[in-house]
Specification:
The chain is of the alpha/beta class. The chain has 2 domains: about 140 residues, Aspartate Aminotransferase, domain 1 (Alpha-Beta Complex); about 240 residues, Aspartate Aminotransferase, domain 2, CATH 3.40.640. It contains 11 helices and 12 strands. It has a 7-stranded mixed β-sheet, sandwiched between helices. A 3-stranded antiparallel β-sheet has the order 10-11-12. The longest helix is centred in the C-terminal third of the chain and has 22 residues. Its EC number is 2.6.1.52. This is phosphoserine transaminase. Its cofactor is pyridoxal 5'-phosphate.
Length: about 400
C-alpha cells in the first residue's frame, strides 16, 4: 500500500457523515435482508395466537396457507404446479433434491460460491453419478447445454456471491423427462420469471421476502412431483425422513411442515407476500429492483474509482450489485465508516476476496434510500480524496 493510499484509508476511517445524508433505513444486506416495520408490527399483533402454539392446529396452518396461496398468486402458478415447503433453508433443499429429484446424474452451472455448493453435494452423493459441471469465472454467466445422460439441469437464477443473473428457460432440445431445477434463493419475488420453464423453482425466505431463515420453499411441476413420488418408493434408494420430498409434499398439502417450523418466519413472509401483491405483484417488484439496481450501476459508471464487477450489463443482477473499488482505496474502510453511521452489510462476499462493495436492492429497499446511499458514498469518496490532495 502506498503512502497516498494509506493516508486516504486513514482519512476514510476518520470521516463523519452528516446525518441529513443518511438513508432512512441503512440495511442493504444481501441476506438476511431488511424487514419492514409493518411486518414486525404484524408479528407482534399475532404473538398470542400463533407464537408458542401447535403448528398442527388451525392458527399456524392458516399462516402457512397464506404463504402458499400468496406465492401461487404472485408467481401465477401454471396448472398442476404446487407450492411446497420444508424445514431448513436452500442448503437443505440441495440434499432434498439429491435424494428426491435427481435420478442418476445432474448438470450444474457453477458461477460462484452457492452454485458450487449444490454441485459439490451431488458429486459427493454415493447413489448418483459424477455430475456434469459447466464452470464460468466469477462475474460471468454460463449457459446450460443439452446432455443426453443427465436427468436434471441445475443453476441459480441469481448467484448471490457475485451478482450475476442467469436466464430461466428450458435448455433448447432438452427431453421432457429432464427436470430443470433453479435456485432462486436471492431473487425469487424480485424479478419476473416464467415458472413453467422450471420443475423446481426453490428459495428461502430471508431475501426478497424479508423474513428469517429456517425454511425452504419450492414451486414444483407435476413432473417433479411425479419423480419425487417414484424415487420416494424406490426399493434401491434410502431417503432420510427429514429430507423426504414426498413427506414435504404431503405435509404442505395440509398447510404444515414435517417438523415444527419457525412460525415467526412464516408470519413475516406472509405479510411481505401480501404487501408485494398489494403493490402490483411480481411486475411491480421487478420494476422496482430494476430501477434501484440501475441507479447503482449508473453511479458506478460516473465514478472513476468504481467499476461494475459483472462486465456484461445483461448479466448484472437486479438484486445484488457488486462493484469493484480501485486498489488505491480500501473498500473495508468505506464499509467501516458507513457501518459506524448505521449503513450496514455492503461488504463483499468473503470468499470472493475482492476489494469490493456488494449492495442488495430487494423489493423492500426503496429508491429514496438507494439515492441516499449513493449520496453517502459520494460524500465519503470525495472527502477522503480531498484529504490527501
Amino acid at each position: 500500500m502506498t503512502a497516498a493510499s494509506t493516508a486516504r484509508t486513514d482519512a476514510l476511517r476518520a470521516l463523519t457523515i452528516p446525518s441529513e445524508l443518511l438513508p432512512s433505513d441503512g440495511r442493504f444486506g444481501s441476506g438476511p435482508s431488511r424487514v419492514r416495520d409493518a411486518q414486525m408490527e404484524a408479528l407482534s399483533s399475532v404473538s398470542r395466537t400463533v407464537m408458542g402454539t401447535s403448528h398442527r392446529q388451525a392458527p399456524v396452518k392458516q399462516v402457512v396457507a397464506r404463504v402458499r396461496q400468496g406465492l401461487a398468486e404472485l408467481f401465477s402458478l401454471p396448472e398442476g404446479y404446487e407450492v411446497v415447503l420444508g424445514n431448513g433453508g436452500s442448503t437443505a433443499f440441495w440434499d432434498v433434491a439429491a435424494y428426491g429429484l435427481i435420478e442418476k446424474r445432474s448438470q450444474h452451472l457453477v458461477l460462484g460460491e452457492f452454485s458450487q455448493k449444490f454441485a459439490a453435494e451431488t458429486a459427493g452423493a454415493p447413489h448418483l453419478a459424477e455430475p456434469e459441471v459447466i464452470r464460468a469465472e466469477p462475474g460471468s454467466c454460463p449457459a446450460p447445454r443439452v446432455s443426453e445422460d443427465v436427468d436434471a439441469y441445475a443453476w441459480p437464477h441469481n448467484e448471490t456471491s457475485t451478482g450475476v443473473m442467469v436466464p430461466v428457460a428450458r435448455p433448447e432440445g432438452a427431453r421432457e423427462d429432464q427436470l430443470v431445477l433453479v435456485d432462486a434463493t436471492s431473487v425469487a419475488g424480485a424479478a419476473q420469471v416464467d415458472v413453467s420453464a422450471t420443475d423446481a423453482y426453490y428459495f428461502a425466505p430471508q431475501k426478497a421476502f424479508a423474513s428469517d431463515g429456517g425454511l425452504w420453499l419450492a414451486i414444483l411441476s407435476p413432473a417433479a412431483i411425479e419423480r419425487a413420488e417414484r424415487l420416494g418408493t424406490a426399493e434401491d434408494r434410502w431417503i432420510p425422513s427429514f429430507l423426504s420430498l414426498t413427506a414435504a409434499i404431503d405435509n404442505s398439502r395440509k398447510d404444515q411442515t414435517l417438523n415444527t417450523p419457525a412460525v415467526a418466519t412464516l408470519v413475516l413472509m406472509a405479510e411481505q407476500i401480501e404487501w408485494m401483491l398489494s403493490q402490483g405483484g411480481l411486475a411491480w417488484a421487478d420494476s422496482r429492483t430494476r430501477t434501484t439496481s440501475g441507479m447503482l450501476q449508473a453511479w458506478a459508471e460516473r465514478r472513476g474509482e468504481i467499476t461494475p464487477f459483472v462486465a456484461d450489463p445483461a448479466a448484472r443482477s437486479q438484486v445484488v450489485t457488486t462493484l469493484d473499488v480501485d486498489d488505491s482505496i480500501d473498500a473495508t474502510a468505506i464499509t467501516s465508516v458507513l457501518r459506524s453511521h448505521g449503513v450496514v452489510d455492503i461488504e463483499p462476499y468473503r470468499k470472493l476476496g475482492r476489494n469490493q462493495l456488494r449492495i442488495a436492492t430487494f423489493p423492500a429497499v426503496d429508491e429514496q434510500d438507494v439515492a441516499a446511499l449513493i449520496a453517502v458514498l459520494d460524500h465519503v469518496l470525495d472527502r477522503s480524496a480531498d484529504a490527501v490532495s
